[in-house]
Every structure is written in C-alpha cells, then in structure tokens.
Amino acid sequence: MPKFFLKWKAKRRQKKFLKEFADALDAMARLLQAGMPMSEAIAMTSREFEGPLKEEMLRIYDNQKIGVSIGEAALMMARRVPLPEVHMFATALQIQSETGSSLSEVLYNLSNVIRSRFRLRRKVQALSSEAKSSAAIIGCLPLLVMLALYLARPEYIGLLFTKPTGKIMLWGSSIWMSFGVLMMRQMINFRI
Fold it and tell me: Residue 9 to residues 14, 48, 53, 114: CA-CA distances in angstroms?
C-alpha cells in the first residue's frame, strides 16, 4: 500500500510539474533572447512559478551557484523527475553548455512538443471515455443481475451460495469476470 501511495504522489507531482513546464520553457527562451544568461533565466523562472517546478529550478540554480555546471544540474533534475520532457531539457542544456548552440530556439521547440503531447493526451482521453464507460457497465452488469434476482426470487440465487456446485460456479465466474475486466482495462489504457 505505501508503494502505491508513493507512486500516486509522484505522478501527481509530475503532472503539476509538467503542467507549467511548457510555459516556463517559453519564459526562459524569451529571457535568453533578451540577452539574459541561462543561470539568471532559471532563477527568474524559479521566482515566477510555483510548486514542484519552482523547487526544481531553485535546485538547478543553487547547484550552479556552488560550482556544478548547468547541464549537470539539469541532468540531476532529470533523475529526480523522470519525464521524457525533462530529459530533453537536460540534454539541450548539456549540449548548449558544450557547443554553445541557440538554446532559445530549442526551448521554444520543446515547449511546442510538450503542448502537442498534452493535446494528444486529452484527445485520447476523450476518445477512450466511451470504451471506459462500456467496460464499467459490462463489469457491473453481473452484480446488478444477481441483486435483481435476489430481490425477485431469493431461492434461485441462493443455490449459488449454499450448494457446492453453486460455489464453484460463483468462484469460476468471478475469476473469469476479473480476467475480462483486466483485459478491457489493458485494451483501453493508452500510453502516450
């Protein structure tokens, strides 16, 4: 149970981080185009945004102040926040620190990629919502039929709970229904 709780908290934190990350990249790109150095752009971003994004940008800035290169500090952030977008950001900073390429253009492109992925994710959720509701109805239907039968004729459904063959049939049907629900869940669960 604690493992699932920690996974849930980590996913929630990553969603909050990613929600503001595209805007932060745009802000950094604008600051870079205005002539500000990357370390100051990161510091300004940490002051402007809230939540996990602020914490991570502050860590990058603090690491840079004690002598760690910005690229290495971003790679450390990518280990703490294991998202593909953060890895792309860290790689861009690493490459920029080694080659001196145009970082503002890379940050703009990365923010566009993040926004495109958000749009795609929302579209997939909208398209799969019908299948999710159908799966929920199919999964609950046997329980509703059993309840209706119990209310109408308790002696009919009572055989499932009192006779040994009824118990075997009840267990078998519940196992097969569980397999069916898991299969439907796997068919509906899309990874983007």
Answer: 9, 24, 15, 21
Residue 95 in tokens: 């490459």
Q: Is the pTM of this model over 0.70?
A: no
In tens digits, the chain (192 residues) has pLDDT values of 888 899 899 889 988 888 888 899 898 889 888 888 888 888 888 888 888 889 999 999 998 888 888 888 889 999 998 888 889 888 888 887 777 667 888 888 888 988 898 888 888 888 778 878 887 888 888 889 989 988 998 888 888 888 899 899 989 988 998 888 888 878 777 666
d(CA 118, CA 125) in angstroms, rounded, equals 11
Q: What is the rounded CA–CA span in Å between residue 41 and residue 60?
A: 11
Domains of the chain: 2-119 (1.20.81), 126-188 (no CATH)
Sequence-distant (6+) residues with CB within 8 A of 187 are 131
Structure tokens at 22: 């595209």
Token duo for residue 20: 């503001």
